[in-house]
Amino acid sequence: MDTNDQYGGRHRTPAHAPLGTPAHAPLGRTPRQVRLVAAAGAAALALSAGLATPLSPAPSQAHAADDDGKVLTVAVAQSVDSLSPFLAVRLLNTSIHRLTYEYLTNYDPEDNHVVPGLATTWESSPDKLTWTYTIRSDSTWSDGEQATAEDAAWTFNTMMTDPGAATANGSFVSNFEKVTAPSPTQLVIKLKKPQATMTALDVPIVPKHVWEKGSDYLTTARAKGLRDDLVRRRHAVPNALLPTVTLIFINLGRTVAGVILVETVFSWPGLGGLFYQALSVPDLPLVQGLFFVFAAAVIVMNTLADLIYPLLDPRVGR
Predict the structure, then answer these.
(1) Which of 205, 192, 199, 101 is nearest to 150 (CA)?
(2) pTM value?
(3) Which among 141, 147, 133, 149 has a CA at the least distance from the CA of 183?
(4) Alpha-carbon distance 282 to 37, whole Å?
(5) CA–CA gap between residue 133 and residue 123 (Å, rounded)
(6) DSSP structure class, residue 9
(7) CB 53 within 8 A of CB 247
(8) SS3 string of 256-297?
(9) What is the pLDDT of residues 108-139, one digit of tens each?
(10) Which residues does residue 78 pair with via DSSP β-bridges, in sequence order?
(11) CA-to-CA distance for 212 and 82, rounded, in angstroms?
(12) 180-219 as b/e, with b when 16 or more CB fall inside 10 Å?
């Protein structure tokens, strides 16, 4: 995630600082100390990246792993925030979606011009407010069900009516007035005003017959007479917490490893400062011991997350 400096204050160079000293540069540190700080920071980054992410150094080619070709295996070196096409915002996740779902249009790998995807052809009205897409008739989902214009219409309408579903790609549909599927092979999108991205809608089309069942358990709970607060607390929240718990504990592990850099830069006492002192001596046994402590902290956080999963969703422990 990109972060911005929230502080607008001006930095002043102390009167006793040598000429040419940057306003933010710490005074009194020798080049050797600066190198040690850099080494400590590099060690912290290496530790957090190596222990909090998968071991593969770079994404590799995806392939089907089982006999019937319904399991997609992708080796990655980054964490995944969500595999839901409605929620995922990281580049890694959108790349996986490109391998899993179909889009109305795709891009040519040579010059990036628009090529047919789920839609074979498309045309707009003279005022550019109505777009009609012809959907392929020979596409099927992995379960054998045919992919139709109704799937695309349901995907867009869900994003238009559910703020949660618009988390990742809501900007594409904010200008949509109405989306319909007059036939299995025809999709019609009416706009409020002309939109330049109509041939480049980077929205994964999901199978309606699968995704529309996602909230049936909440409907069933309400049909039993449960109050809304019980439905949310006992049914909705436990299912929504799984990816949240994953990110929390991964980031906690990274935080423990990150104290090396933070405590060294800000001269705070703690394990990070002790690690810096061990590098300054150098005291290799102490460095190795601290590395073990930081690594153990990351492993403990990941283990705690695995232990909490069955408490939130009993299906995980089966």
Answers:
(1) 205
(2) 0.54
(3) 149
(4) 13
(5) 7
(6) P
(7) no
(8) HHHHHHHHHHHCCCCHHHHHHHHHHCCCHHHHHHHHHHHHHH
(9) 888 889 999 999 999 999 999 999 999 999 99
(10) none
(11) 18
(12) ebeeeebbbbebeeebeebeebbbbbbbbeebeeeeeebe
User: Three-class SS of residue 119?
Assistant: strand
**Which has the closest alpha carbon to 162: 214, 125, 230?**
214
Burial class from Cβ neighbours inside 10 Å (0-12, 13-18, 19+) for residue 281 reads: exposed
CB atoms within 10 A of CB 88: 21
CA distance 64 to 273: 47
CB 251 within 8 A of CB 302: no
Q: Can you spell out the DSSP letters for 161-202?
A: H-TTTTTTTHHHHTTEEEEEEEETTEEEEEESS--TTTT---
Structure tokens at 89: 């915002």
Neighbours of 86 (CB within 10 A): 20
Specify whether the CB–CB gap between 118 and 136 falls below 8 A: yes
* Residues contacting residue 216 through CB under 8 Å, at least 6 positions apart: none
Return the H-helix or E-strand segment holding 120.
strand 119-124
Which residues lie closer than 8 Å to 136 by C-beta, 6 or more apart? Answer: 116, 118, 119, 120, 147, 185
Give the chain's residues under pLDDT 50: 1-29, 34, 45, 47-65
For residue 24, give the amino acid letter: H
Amino acid 105: pLDDT: 94
C-alpha span between 258 and 264 (Å, rounded) = 10
Q: Which pairs count as long-range contacts for 114-122, CB under 8 Å and 24+ apart, including other chains?
A: 114/199, 114/200, 118/147, 118/152, 118/205, 119/187, 122/198, 122/199
- Alpha-carbon gap, residue 318 to 314, rounded angstroms: 7
At 196, the amino acid letter reads: A
Place of tokens 């190596």: 50
Residue type, 95: S
